[in-house]
Structures are given as structure tokens and as C-alpha cells.
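Risk register update: the risk that structure generation would not scale has been downgraded. Supporting records follow, first protein first.
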Amino acid sequence: MKYVLVTGGVVSGLGKGVTASSIGLLLKSCGLRVTSIKIDPYLNTDAGTMSPFEHGEVFVLDDGGEVDLDLGNYERFLDITLTRDNNITTGKIFQHVFDKERRGDYLGKTVQVVPHVTDAIQEWIERVAMIPVDGKEGPADVCVIELGGTIGDMEFMPFTEALGQFSCRVGAGNFCLVHVSLVPVLNVVGEQKTKPTQHSVRLLRGLGLTPNILACRSTKALDDNVKEKLSQFCHVPAVNIFTLYDVPNIWRVPLLLRDQKAHEAILKGLGLHEIASEPNLTEWIARTKVCDMLHDPVKIAMVGKYTGLSDSYLSVLKALLHASVACRRKLVVEWVAAGDLEDARATEAPDVYEAAWKCLKGAHGILVPGGFGDRGAQGKILAAKYARENKVPFFGICLGMQIAVIEYARSVLGLKDANSTEFDPKTPDPCVIFMPEGSKTHMGGTMRLGSRRTYFNVTDCKSAKLYGNVTFVDERHRHRYEVNPNMISELEAKGLSFVGRDESGQRMEIVELQTHPYFVGVQFHPEFKSRPGKPSALFLGLIAAACGQLDALLEKGGQWSKVLINGISNGKPMLRAYQNGCVVKASNGSLNGVYSNGNGVHH
């Protein structure tokens, strides 16, 4: 097994996850099998109990693991299926060591950080690296490990010590360290400054880790003299110093590394240059060009609770992007804070209220993503009501589906007090209830999690057709509440169709309004399995409905043609995007290729 370790220095948020994913994709394109591990130094056992404002979205895996969002990047870039053990946290390691100590596995020894914690980290890495993640038998050729956070953080120490020992133990030809660092450009002088990277590398070397490759984040390509200076002070060959400058689309990052021959440096360092082939990124390049050159916009209103941080809905944004590229449309996300749609906001801040409704009404489609808690619930209900009554394409995910059911019960069944017991435990008409098997005392890992099977009990429906007329689908879940099965007959009698259910037939998974152009809600999270070349069926349906392509898509059995390999079909390169009717420059922010209205800052 060969190992590539990706670390970060100077500041957080440099894009280590995208860099690690891009390195993995590049190695995979050379004919190698690749797996990934993410190390998070926090004491939480997993990301499941963390607020999206703290750490971005919680990404859910097939096995029910609630993990860091970077594992979503790995799965999307590499088209692999990871496990919960591919995300290492300090909490998991300490718990593992504590359990061994209680069992008496240490034979009476004094349990210490070195060697017991550091050994546990190394053993975990070696064990997980051997787990196949690409559907084939046997271990991968290369394991890409991302060490989260910034070099020098206190909580890092056990991991840097363990990785220093690990690099020595596996040998130089089996270990390659890529250090992602910042080379800022001061506006006053316009000069690229190397001192932050010099200090970061010096700190890294002091911790027992020597970088083989420097990946330098900057606003523009590094000048040759800057590379020479970094090489001299950081003891890294100039040919192993690469620039990761700002690009409008993260799909371009692997191409950026390939053009600088980063794969050759890694393959040479790992002794794989003789068995690896030249990188084949034909489809990836074609898809990237299509994405960059789209100009006909499709506006989707994202009505949520965590709109102040786009990473809270990262997988949803990526799934929308995958679907919009397949439909040859430039995605424009209109961020709408659900609370801004509520009547109370009209009194408190009428301008904010009017702007929110203007965004909602100007959208081609409306999406209500998952979430927890009652804040903004009424605003989401109003958004679902508007979409239903005005025939605007609507897609509700997890809580979004429950919201659609509540709205329908209130407006169509006349149950004015219909609600979820999550929002009102004493509601006389509980449309959504706490699942019987759920825990009300423990929060972590107690939800209905991971891949579960949904059976179509109605085959002549949009969802089944979008999935290719299959009889069942496997999608990932993360919820504590469900639609009340005792109300299903009453809801269906009034036209709301529950077309997908679990194996028992009692748990509702997919709901549709057949008389609506596209009104779909799902209890699961289809965004977690969307891939750049294989967009999620129901996201594809939303985008297709929003831009008038749904009928054609359904005729094709939900299967859109693959991205064109030779040539681009949709006009000139897109250098600008529209935000609320105003022409603005394309952003290089975390959305990467997704254009937004800037209304996402809400506290």
C-alpha cells in the first residue's frame, strides 16, 4: 500500500479536501485504485451532533456513518463508497484506546499518548486503507489521507507524531507528503509572499514530517523566482512546487495539477511511475468545459434555515450543479432564509420580507432541504404552499417532505392545527411523528441512518420514471421523524400520493402530487449519492421541470445523454452570471460554479 498525506498550513479553508480529492482523481485516471481517509482532530466521535454552522453539512454514508463533508468530495470525485471508519476523529481514537484499556488489552501498562494513542492511529489507518471502496475485490493501490485543520494546532499533536512514525515505518518510497499552504499577494505591493509558507514548513518539519510536494494556494500562478525561493528555504525541489490558483469551478483543480505534472511527482515519489499510465481525463475535461460555457440560467430558490453558510447544504448544491450541467443550464441559487418569508418578518423588517418573497417568486423551482428544529418552519410551509398553488416545480428533502405534507393537511384537508410533533408536541393533528424506534435520551448515532430500500408501490409516477422505471431504489437516510402512517389514507383520498414506501409499507419515503408539474418530496437524502457524471434522478427531475425539459426526460426513462466528449453544444464561454437581475463577476467562493444571490447572510 502507498500513502499520500495532505496537510495544510498558515490558515484553514485553503481547500485541502478538494486538493486531496483532485490528487485521488488524478491517480485514478492513471489506472490506479484509490481510497481516502479524513482525519479530524476534534473530540467528537463523529460529525452527527455538530451544527452546520460549526462544521458545514453532515455527510451520510451507506453504512450510516455521519462524517465530515470532505468525504462527500472524495465520493463525488472518485465515485467510490466509503465507510464510517474512513473518517478518523480524536474521539474515535480515544474511545478505542479506552475500550482496550477497560478490557485489559494493555496488560497492566500505563496507557499514554505515546505509544498507545499513536499506535492506535497507525493501526486504524493501515486497517481502513485495506478496505475496498470501489466495488472491486482486494485493497486499493494508493490511500490518500487528509489531515484536517492547520499544522500547529494543539489537538494535532497525537496525529502528527503518529504520522511521523508511520512515514518512517512504511518507508520513503511508500509515503508522499503534500503540504497545502498559502502564498498571499499583498495588494499594496502586488508581490507574492513566501514567508508564511516558509514558517509553516519549518513547523511541519519540527513535528517530524517533511513535505515532498508543496501545493501553494494563491490568486495567480507562482512566479519562477518565488518557486526557487520556496525551494531553497523549504528544501523541496522546484519541480515539486505547484500552484493552486483561484478557478471558477473546482472541477478544474485536477486539471490544474495535471497540467503542472503533479501526478508525475507523486508517482515518482511512490515508485509507481513505471506501472501507471498517462492520466485519462477525457470525460472530466468535457464535463468541465460544458459547465464553464453554460449561460442559460435556471434559478432555484433554496428555502432553508442555515442559509448563512453555503457549506451547510454543500451536497445539495453539488447535486443541483450535476443536474443543471446535464440539462445544459447555468445554475443560479437564490438563497431564501425561511424565517424571512413569515408574516412576523413583514412587521419586523418589511424590506427583508419583500426581498425574500421576490426571490421565491422569481425562481424557476423551489427546494426545501433537510433540517432540524422549528425555526423557519412556517416560512418553509409558506414556500411549499406557494409552489403547490402556483404550479412551480418543488422538491422537498427529509424535513422538506414533511413540510409539504403539513402544508397539504392544513390547506387541503382543512386541518388548521396540523403539525409535526417536533414543532408542537401537543398538536391535535400530528402529520409527522417521532419514530417509535428512536431514542429521546441520546442524540449521537440514534437516528434512522444510512442506505435503506424504498419500494415503488405506484409505478406510473414521475419518481419511478426518473429512476428508470425500477421497482425499488437504495438511498441514504438521516431522520428521527416520519409521516404519521395513520393519516395516509386521509391524505391520499385528497390527492396526495405516497408512491414510495419502505419494506413494511408503513413508512412513507416518496410523496408526489400527480396533478402538479413537479411536486415531489422524499424522506431520504438523494444528494449524497449524486455524482458529476451521474446526477441524482430527482434533482435531475427538478432542474428539468424548472427549465421545461421534464417531459422529454421522462420519455427517455429518466436517462439523460452523457456529457458530450467531443465539442460543446451550448455557445460561448460564460464569464459573468446574474444575481437578482444584476450582472456580476463570477465568484471564486466555496460554491465553485454555482451562482448565488448573496442573500445568504442571516444570523
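Supporting record for the second protein:
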Amino acid sequence: MSSCINDCKRVHQIEVEPLPESNKVEHSLLLIKGRLQPNCASVKQLKATLNLSLCKKKYEQLTQLSTAGEFKLLLDLTDIDLSQEELEQEDCQLQLSCCNGELRLNFIYQPRRSAYRVQPLYLLCRSSDDVEEEQEVQTKEHCALIDLNLRLVQCIYAHKLNAAGYENRTFTLNGVCRVFRSQLSCTAARGSSEDELWQHFASEILSSADWGQQLHLKFVAFIGCTRYDGASVVASGDYSYANIRRHLHGHAALGGGGLALFGSGHFYAWPRHFAKIGDCIRSTERVDVARLPDESNYRRTYGGVYASTLGAVCHELGHCFDLGHTLEGVMGHGFDYLNRVLTVDQPTEHLPQRIVTRVTDKYTDTDTSNASPASSSSVVRPRLTQLRLKQPAGSKFLDNYHAQRRNDSFYFTRNCAVILAQHRWLRPEIDLDLKAQGELNAAQIQLLPASSEIASSVPLRLVELRCNLNSLVAHYEEFQEQPAVHRFQLPDSLWHLLSTKHTHYAFVLTIHGDTKRLACDAATS
């Protein structure tokens, strides 16, 4: 490690963004962001020593300091000899040192427990016997890769919601990735559209003996037989995003209801081991599009592919957690910037903006509190698939610079953070307490056309107006728990969009995490 000269006259302090007030961490990967104050020109790295008391192990790692003395540190709080089911609580001590600055952090790692969980699946379609034998080793590798990277997604959700003021809010993984054997053939899968794949796999999962009718589970699934026809891309001479996607078969990036579905064609850029996460996200190795599909928003690097595709997992999972689209942040075109969450000193990026497009018919009046995978078959699953190839105006470059310095450009907007913090799949396990008190009853939520109101038997927490075409949030109203609000009258301009033009629908969230989509019927409004 680079060290400061022994007679450094400056007194340094290490500052970090605060851990949860309870000093309890519930996710197995922990991201710590901080800086050395004042900056020291002689020091390039910070040393971190993690002591895990239960398993009596010590881990050391170095992390790079930015030119401004900032650092980001990713820690694995698990021990490979102890499963998460066996681990009740781990006392952790983290020692940070840089030049003559030192900081000791003591916290508890207690694996998150919740009845509402997310189950990872690796989807194997039918193929010939000899191919299935060859797939066995690859399947194990891919399942391990999925487990690691979903733990990172879990960490990023917690980190960003903590930054928004909500501690220990993230989803609970329902164990390791499991193999799901589909009746769909590889040939049929590669000939199907994204929406057809989503519909088929959602139906199969719902009707399966292992996973059917488990209303407290949502699924994030990866299709094992994704294939890329790079030769045809080269022959066409068209290296655009749209053409590359056109030649990627058995692929999806689509989430909603109880299923987020993805292809496996970009696993080449994903880390297989914790120690490789930093190398993968910073990789500048160029993507050979003759062999491998590029999904980096035109960065054409392995690191760009990893950032955009893992960012897409965060985005599509957000739809499973009832989030709509926003102009900025994770649920807008900001999910491409996941690399900035984990790194320091990256140059400002000016990437093409993604365009929200429509997939299926408009929303119906749907209660999504316990939606199963197939229950949103009638629900829009809008996608950010196209790219607007237009460079920002001069002032936009400066705006991008400030935005990326301030919040990594990867964040949940206020309305999204409120939904996630209140959502049953992410909030602390308080439902049992509410049941014991007799307070957890299904909310009765309805539109009252005569008064232009939304009424709920359980106090309201948030109301959004979303566009039917692309689920883009046009307006939202946030309510505090006290004083309790059971009725909200929509302003005339918003009620006009909902009841007269029928271009928008209302999304409603209660303080107990009940969610419902409400639309006016053109025949009765």
C-alpha cells in the first residue's frame, strides 16, 4: 500500500457515510462510501481490515482513493464455510487506515428475514441429450454467478434507499439460484419475442409443483439458451443497438408483476467471484461484436456491458416492486450508470437517452399487493429499449457533470424511494405485529367519480398518475402517516387526464404497503 511519509504534518480523519442508526446490516454485501480529510497527495490507497468474530476470520483489502480523497469499499460479510440459514448474527469490526488517519466501525450483520422473498431461477429449455451433458458444468457456474450478482443488486438497493433516508430497506433472497426445467425447446425460445417468453415462463412457473401459488415469492429468472448471431451483424455492417438486439435470440429484459426475466447472453461481462467485481465494473476491454452482444449504451466495453445489464436488473426488479418509469434515475435512463455507484474518479459520461416504449395493452384496475407472475398478463410492461442518439447541448454537459458527482446518476427518485420503503417486499418485517394488533386487513381502495377522489380504508401514503402508454409518472402526491389521510381529491387537470382523456391511470400506495392501479372506464366515466 502507498503510505504517507513518516513526518506528515497534517492530521487526517477518515469520514464515511453513516451506517444504519441501529448499526445492524441485513444484506451480505456492504458498500461503504467515504473520504480522507484533508486530502493527502502522498497517499493513493486506503487499507481496510474486516474482522468477523463468529467465524474468527480476518480479511484485508486495499481500495483506491480518488484525486479528491474519496473512496468506495465493497465488503463481503459472509463466510463460505457458513450458510446464511445457519448464521443468526455476526459481530463485525472494520478498521480503516490511511496515512495517519484511522477509523474503527463496529456493527452487526444479521441476515434479513422476511416472508416476502425473491427467488432466483436459471431456466433450462429442452435440448438434445449431448448438449444437456455439456451444460451441466456451465449451469453450476451460471447459478453461482447469478447468486453473487443478485447479492450485489440487493446491496445497491439498500445503499440507495439508505441515502434516501430509509435504513435496512432491501429485498430478501429466498436462498440460492435454482434450476427450472422448462418444457419449451431451445429452438422455440430463440424464435420467441421478449413478451412471448415472459408470458410462457410466467405461466410455467405459476403452474409448477415447486413454485406455483406461492404468493409471497417474486422471481428473477435468466434464460440459459440465449444465443447471439454475431456473423449476421458483421455481414449487415449495421452495429447499432437495435440490430445487435435483433440478432440476440432467446433474450429478454422485462419485469412486472411477480417475474423479472432476462437472457444470459451478457454473462461474459459479469464477475464470477466477489474479488472480480471491481475489475469487471472498471474493465475497458473492447467488446468484439462479431462474437459477443454489446449492451453498454454504446460504450463498447466489458465494464459498460456489466453496468448496463446489471443496472437493467435493478430497473426491471423495480417494476416487480410496482415502480413506474421516471425521467431520471434507476427507473429512467439512469440505470446505465451503475458503474458510478461502485467506483470513484470516473470521467463524466454522456450516454444516449433511452426511450420508453409500449409492450401490451393499457392497465386495468388491478390489485398488485400479492401479484403472482401471471397475474400481470394484462399489465403494461413498458421497456427502455430504444436509444436517442443525440448529444446533449453545451449546458447539459455541465448538468451531467454535477449530477454524476452528486448522486452517481443512479438513484431512486423520491416517489420511487417512498414506494420501495413502504413495499412489503422491502420494508422491515412488521406485518406479524400488525396482524397481532388486528390492523392488517386488505385495503379497500376505490375511485369516487362524483367527487374526483381516491378513497382508501387504510391511510394513503402515495398517489401517482402514470401514463397508459409507457407507465411514466406524470405527477405524484406524498402523504405522511400522521395525520392520516383516507381521501384525496385529484386536481381538475389530473382528473381530466384520468376520467375524460383516459390517457393515464392512478397508482395508489397505503401505509401498510397495499398497492392498487385505478383507471376510469370510458363507458361509465
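The two ends are 69 Å apart (CA to CA). On this basis the risk owner (M.S.) recommends closing the item.
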